[in-house]
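Explain the record.
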Amino acid sequence: MATRTDALTRREQILKEAARLFAERGFHGVGVDEIGAAVGISGPGLYRHFAGKDAMLAELLVGISEQLLAGGRLRVAESESGGGNPEALLDALIEGHIDFALDDRPLITLHDRELDRLRDSDRKLVRQLQRQYVELWVTVVRELHPGLAEPSARSAVHSVFGLLNSTPHLGRPGVLPGRAATAELLHRMARGAFTAAGVAEAAGATGA
């Protein structure tokens, strides 16, 4: 008999392959049988784990939004318990998002292409989770750059997300530098964007 751990592992395998196939060929270009074949089970066997493709898509997009928010909150809690260094916390948030952007590129593509396919309740939940994640970053950015007005900080956060989430468009595997070098480059660019936003705001406030 399969254990609960086995079942969870199989669900994760199904979701990973579904994300890859949906990103490569589009949601409507992939059949249940193909997803099943990718994980070594029959197409109908998938229905023991998911009601259908719509349920897989919802779990993928809601799930990654939940994971990003939970990871951000965990980093904030760890920072607060360690004395609260906003610069180190911003670095930790950037590193966490870079891990997602480099390791879960199919989910970025899915979000861009398929979010509107979710039923209204799931789409609203994704948006709600994303807003909370953005506001978490806004709070940290404004602690580090106190002269940055809230709307400007929010715009800067969205811009940095756009930068980091561009990874599916950076090129074919093997064309880019190694993962560590790419992560370092993205991190420098993200920090540079926040610094530039703070400098620009200060210059505008002084009329420079």
Observations:
- Confidence is low (pLDDT under 50) at residues 1-7.
- Helices lie at 4-25, 32-39, 53-81, 86-103, 105-114, 120-144, 150-164, 179-206.
